[in-house]
Amino acid sequence: MSNDALILVVDDDPHIREVVQYALEKGGFRVVCANDGKQAISLFYEHSPDLIILDIMMREMDGTDVCRAIRANFDTPIIFLSSKDDEIDKVLGLELGGDDYVVKPFSPRELVARIRAVLRRKADSNITAQAGKTPDRPNIISYGALKLDLDRHLAYWGGIALEFTVTEFNILRTLLGYPGKVYSRDELMSGAYVNDNHVTDRTIDSHVRRIRRKFNEIGADPVDTVHGVGYKLRDCIQGNRCSANPD
C-alpha cells in the first residue's frame, strides 16, 4: 500500500474537513476536499482519488447520491461518515456500495486506521491477482457460468461482465475457492477483510445482498443462502443456468 495515496474528503462541515485533512496529511496521505456532493463528483473525475471519505447528510447532493453516481462505473473504495448510529443507516450505506462506515464524533486515529485497512484490502486483492501470472495465461478462476478475471478485477456470468467492489469481489473469490462448500460468515469475513476486525455478520449479509442484486439484474442468482450457516455457490452454476430467485 502506497503511503502517499490520494484521499477525497467530502463533508459540508468545514471543521470536519479540517480535522480529517490534518489527520490524513499527518498520516502521510495526500488530500483533496469537497464541500458538497456536486463538487465531489467534479473532483473525483479530476483527481481519480484512491479512496473517498463521504459524508451522508449534505445539503447539496447527499452522500448516497454521490455513491450511486460513482458506483455506476467505478469501484473506488468509499468510507461513509454519518452523525447517526442506527444499524439501518449502516446497512444502507454498505448496500449502496460503501466499504466501511464511521459514526461522528469519531477518533481521527481510528479513521486513519480504517482507511489503511480498506486500502490494504484493495492492495492485497491486486497482489493476489498478480500471483502466478504469465503473459500468455490470464489469471482466471471459474465454475460453470461464473468466471472471475483476477487481473482485471471483473466477474462474468456467461459472456456478461459485471463490476464489483473490492469487498464484493473478494467474497466471490472466497466462494469460488471451494465451489459447493457452505462458507460461514466468519470464513467470508476472513477472505474479504484481511487484517480488519471492524466487521459484523450484518456487514457480510449486506455485501452478499448487493452481489446477488447485481446478478439478479441480468437474470442470474448463483449465490445460495444456507439459513443458520452461511452462503455457497449454487450447484446449478455448472449447467450455466441459475435463474434469479432471491431467498
List the helices and strands and how they pair.
Elements: E1 6-10, H1 14-26, E2 30-34, H2 37-47, E3 51-55, H3 63-71, E4 78-82, H4 87-96, E5 100-103, H5 108-130, E6 140-143, E7 146-149, E8 154-157, E9 160-162, H6 166-176, E10 183-184, H7 185-192, H8 201-216, E11 223-226, E12 230-233
Helix pairs in contact: 1-5, 2-3, 4-8, 6-7, 6-8
For the CA atoms, what is the radius of gyration?
Answer: 18 Å
Strand arrangement in the largest pleated sheet: 2-1-3-4-5
Give the name of the CATH superfamily of the largest domain.
Response regulator
Which runs of at least 5 residues are low in confidence (pLDDT < 50)? 132-137
Cα-to-Cα separation, first versus last residue: 38 Å
Strand content: 15-25%
Q: Write down the secondary-structure element order.
A: EHEHEHEHEHEEEEHEHHEE
Structural category is alpha/beta
The major sheet is characterized as:
5 strands, parallel
Q: What value does the average pLDDT take? A: 81
What would you say the CATH architecture of the largest domain is?
3-Layer(aba) Sandwich
Share of helical residues: 40-55%
Give me the CATH fold name of the largest domain.
Answer: Rossmann fold
What's the number of structural domains?
A: 2
Using the coordinates above, name the CATH class of the largest domain: Alpha Beta
Number of E-state strands: 12
Helical run tally: 8
Choose one word for the global shape. Answer: elongated
